[in-house]
Structures are given as structure tokens and as C-alpha cells.
Specification:
There is one protein chain. The protein has a domain of about 110 residues. About 40% of the residues lie in helices and about 20% in strands. It contains 16 helices and 16 strands. The longest helix is centred in the middle third of the chain and has 17 residues. It is globular, with a radius of gyration of 23 Å. The termini are far apart.
């Protein structure tokens, strides 16, 4: 089979990937609450993150695809039973139609097969469940000792751990959240009546992972379909399902220039290259389009790593550097911070990729204008009026960018 694999142009694959992600055209999913649901359903999940250097990752990802996204849209979808919160490769919002597939992980946690490191104090967990059943939805702070500390089952840390264990194994769900304060309730009081609560078998789960990965990415390697999921049996089931679809002709296997094999539906892989709008988009470090770093490196020649988890001495680009997408390629990264209290958006440093300096198509006013527009809009979204532009890896580009942003930008 390998000898007969077609070699596919890297740029064609980039455009497929970005189109599926809703990043190739502006407002690809539309606007408003329904567009937010469409975006989330296409992506399969949106990662929840606590870092507040700029707008939270889960809001940032959706705003990158839905121009008028507001957090209340996500809250409404959750309250309406169209979205739920659980674990993908990390804590995430997921479309409710994926609920039954979360049961695979939940049952594994219940059996103790997954390392989680939370409380398994069954007496404490039973008391928490009984209290929520009797009193209704409760926050973790509702279990705090009135004096702020104390022993017994009211002690803060064990109770928080027990709540998280109950949540991870599916005995509790997050009913609502205010910022990062979760309200827990019983699944039967959170789930819509129409939701299927039967646990899928390994083969069905494998098919689901293939379907959701291809819907979000357009094409994928076999290992990426089980990304951050354990189990040799699952990997074997994915391989068997891929082979079955290849035999049926509902999937194609193609080779990327450089050797990596990908699978995708013929309609996408054999389609004409998508049209590209030359616009700039500032992405979250946790954006679905680049969260699999190896794929990003292979497709886009963009070697990205978030550095907030590294010691300061080992950082090359900064604490929270945001990837910069222009057209169908990544052109740089921006280390920035939104000072919301003062209404000031600080760009500590702007780094352009080597190819921006080496290719004529990027050495023009269009890239400067597009990036200036994206920066101004992102500053507005973060509640900032003024913009401080510090150093730029290419001085001339920095001067031109300051010129376009004049009136809002300072010397930093």
C-alpha cells in the first residue's frame, strides 16, 4: 500500500486544515450563539484554561472563529443542554452529542484504570453525593467550613479532591460555572432527556474518534486520532476501522511531502485548493489548529511551544507568546499582555518567522495592514484602548506597523 500512496502538496493540505478549522475565511461559521455552537461542534472541543494574560483560551478560540462571540453565548449553550464540560485531552467544553463517548473515560476512572491522583474516600464521596441530591446544585465553596478551616469531611482540600473525583468518574457534572467557580449537580438533572447514555464499545469509540478528528482537521495521521488517549486495544481498533474504510473507498491514504501518512475523505483531499483571504488572525497557544505541535511543524514549518511552563531563563519568545496566522501560513508570534485595569495592550515583543523576511509576498504593506487590524481588534476584545509596541525582530516592519497603528500605539 505504501508504494501506491499519492504525495500531496503541503499547501493544499494546509488550506484543507484551516478551512475545516474555520480559519481560512472570516466568519466561516456565521455570527451569534448558533455560530458558536456550530464552531464547537466542528472543532469537537474547546480547551478551558486559567491563564489570564489575555482573554481566556476557551473564549479566545471561539472569538477567532465567531467575530461577535461573547462568553454569555457559551453560558447559554451550557444552560440549554447543548454543551457540556468534561475532559478531552484537557478540561474542555464539548458538544452534547458527544456525551456518551465521554463515558468511556469516566468508567475507566471509576475502575481506577486512569491515574488521576484525587480522593477515593468513598465515605466522603457518598456524603457529598447525598448532600447534592438533597440540596440541589452546589459549588465547592459550599462545602467549606464556616470558619475557613477545620477537620473532618468539611476540610477544604479533601472535599475539593472528592468533588473532582466524582466529576471525573461521571457521578457529578458541571451544571454551570461562573468564571472558574463550578457548580456541580447530578447528571440526571443536567442532561437533556434525549441524550444517549449508553457506553460505546471500543470499535464504536474508535469510529467516533476518527469521525471527529477528520471533521475538525480534514485529514489526520493514525496516532493523532487517539491523541492523549491510552490503550493498545483502542489503537488497534482505530487501525482496523481505517483499513475497513480504505477498502470501502470512503477514505484515502496520502503521503505528505517528507514522509508522514495521512488519512482523509476523497472529497476533501481531491478537491481544488481553497481560496485564501489574506487576513491576519491572532491565535491562542491552546488553539485547536495547532495544539498537536508535531502536526503544526510538519504542515506549516512552524515550530511552536508555549513557554509559560518553562523557567524564565529557558524562554526564547516569552511567557505567553501568541501565534500569528496570515492567509494559509504562520508568520510570527507575539508576546503580549492585556493590562485591563489600565486599558493598555502591551506587545512586549513581536517575532517574525524567517520565511517572512525571505519571501517577497510577505514584504509588502498588506501584511503590515492585516496584522495592525488584527492587533487593534484583539486589543479592543481585551478591553484595551492603547497599544504599546516594544521590540520587533525586524525593525523596518516594526516601524511600519507603528505607523499604521498611530494614534493608539506608544513606543512601549
Amino acid at each position: 500500500m505504501n508504494a501506491s500512496l499519492a504525495v500531496v502538496d503541503r499547501r493544499h493540505l494546509r488550506r484543507i486544515a484551516l478551512r475545516q478549522q474555520g480559519l481560512l475565511q472570516p466568519a466561516a461559521f456565521g455570527r451569534g450563539r448558533n455560530a458558536t455552537l456550530r464552531a464547537l461542534s466542528r472543532l469537537g472541543y474547546v480547551q478551558i484554561d486559567t491563564i489570564a494574560v489575555v482573554e481566556r483560551a476557551h473564549h479566545h478560540v471561539l472569538r477567532s472563529r465567531v467575530p461577535n462571540f461573547e462568553p454569555r453565548q457559551l453560558q447559554h449553550l451550557m444552560a440549554n443542554g447543548e454543551v457540556f464540560e468534561y475532559w478531552s485531552h484537557a478540561a474542555a467544553f464539548l458538544p452534547m452529542q458527544h456525551y456518551r463517548f465521554s463515558l468511556v473515560r469516566k468508567e475507566a476512572f471509576r475502575r481506577g484504570e486512569n491515574h488521576w491522583g484525587r480522593s477515593r474516600d468513598k465515605k466522603l464521596m457518598a456524603e457529598i453525593l447525598a448532600r447534592i441530591e438533597q440540596e440541589g446544585p452546589l459549588k465547592s465553596r459550599d462545602f467549606e467550613h464556616p470558619g475557613g478551616s477545620g477537620g473532618g469531611w468539611w476540610e477544604w482540600k479533601p472535599t475539593k479532591q472528592a468533588l473532582e473525583q466524582l466529576y471525573m468518574q461521571g457521578d457529578l457534572m458541571v451544571a454551570t460555572r461562573e468564571g472558574f467557580q463550578k457548580t456541580y449537580d447530578l447528571p440526571e438533572r443536567v442532561l437533556p432527556e434525549s441524550v444517549d447514555t449508553s457506553t460505546p464499545g471500543t470499535g464504536e469509540y474508535a469510529a467516533h474518534l476518527i469521525d471527529t478528528t477528520l471533521l475538525a482537521q480534514g485529514f489526520a495521521s493514525a496516532p493523532s486520532m487517539s491523541y492523549q488517549r491510552k490503550g493498545a486495544s483502542l489503537r488497534l481498533a482505530i487501525k482496523a476501522e481505517l483499513d475497513r474504510r480504505l477498502d470501502q473507498g470512503t477514505l484515502l491514504a496520502v503521503r505528505l511531502e517528507g514522509g508522514r501518512v495521512y488519512y482523509g475523505v476523497p472529497e476533501l483531499l481531491e478537491s481544488a485548493p481553497a481560496r485564501v483571504v489574506k487576513r491576519a488572525t491572532i491565535l491562542s497557544p491552546f488553539d485547536n489548529a495547532l495544539i498537536q505541535r508535531d502536526r503544526t511543524r510538519q504542515l506549516f514549518d512552524f515550530n511552536y511551544q508555549i513557554e509559560c511552563y518553562l523557567p524564565a531563563s529557558k524562554r526564547r519568545y516569552g511567557y505567553f507568546c501568541l501565534p500569528l496566522l496570515y492567509g494559509d501560513g504562520f508568520v510570527g508570534r507575539m508576546d503580549c499582555k492585556a493590562h485591563r485595569n489600565g486599558g493598555h495592550f502591551e506587545i512586549k515583543a513581536l517575532y517574525l518567522e524567517p520565511m517572512v523576511l525571505g519571501h517577497a509576498e510577505f514584504r509588502n504593506a498588506a501584511l503590515v495592514q492585516a496584522l495592525a487590524t488584527a492587533i487593534a481588534e484583539f486589543a479592543d476584545y481585551n478591553g484595551c484602548v492603547s497599544i504599546g509596541l516594544g521590540c520587533c525582530s525586524q525593525r523596518r516592519f516594526g516601524r511600519e506597523l507603528r505607523g499604521v497603528l498611530s494614534g493608539r500605539v506608544s513606543a512601549g
